[in-house]
Amino acid sequence: MKLLTLNTHSLSDANEDNKLKAIAHVISSRDIDVIALQEVNQTMNAKSISCDEHYVGRDIIKEDNFALALSKLLEGKYYWTYIPVKVGYDRFDEGLAIFSKHKITASENTLLTTTNDYSFWKKRNALGVEITKGTQSFYVYTAHLGWWDDDEEPFIKQWKKLNSVAASKDMPVYLAGDFNAPDVLKDQSYETIKNDGWKDTRDLAKKVSGRFTAQGKIDGWDEAVDGMRIDYIWCNRDENVLSHEVIFDGKNEPVVSDHYGILMEDNL
């Protein structure tokens, strides 16, 4: 099973069409099974649109929705779902999306923050789906968590909510996304996740390529100019991970966001 995660920072950069085409090309050419996306945007005042049967979500989709555009480029070969999480940059419905070549049999929308105020930029949710591949079922969550030392919505409270739902599943579970959790900071977010029993798939991989997933100054990390590892794919078991590679970094596929992606393959 090949799983890709990417914080798309969508509709915020120039050359959006080329960015979409690059992502779609990689998904198709590498035959990726599941794609977990964050910062999936649609303009709030854009027109609502109907989707075909491959959209299995329940939320309203606008005509410029980034996931909708990606689905069209993938020519309906993937099931997909989307949730809006909050207002982004005063003009977007900013949300999360998951694409799957295999049937999505269930989905969850979990509020992670204390606040449920859609207009508050610190609001966070996680999108989870159950996927059935042949006779095997597994869960994938995509999430974009906050910062460890945030006074209003600290990471630890968000993580406890995500962990409580994800750890309850009696099947393979993958947590993918932007965790804002640098692995070099001791006794903070990264170590908290590991101490709760989650496996960093980079540690399990037989073949590893790349390290940093964000380079230079990005939102929320203005002081970080030398690169950070803040995007992850975690699993709840010691899976046989074949490879873990940083992608869309300008070396391994073109840059398409202010984050790089991660492509993980295991034998599921």
From TrEMBL:
GO BP annotations, alphabetical order: GPI anchor biosynthetic process
UniProt xrefs under CDD domains: RgfB-like
Ranges that cross the membrane: none
GO cellular component, one term: membrane
Alphabetical list of Gene3D superfamilies matching this protein: Endonuclease/exonuclease/phosphatase
Domain annotation Endonuclease/exonuclease/phosphatase: ranges: 4-259
SUPFAM superfamilies: DNase I-like (SSF56219)
GO MF annotation: an example: catalytic activity
Name of the protein: Maltose 6'-phosphate phosphatase
Organism: Sharpea azabuensis
Organism placement in taxonomy: Bacteria, Bacillati, Bacillota, Erysipelotrichia, Erysipelotrichales
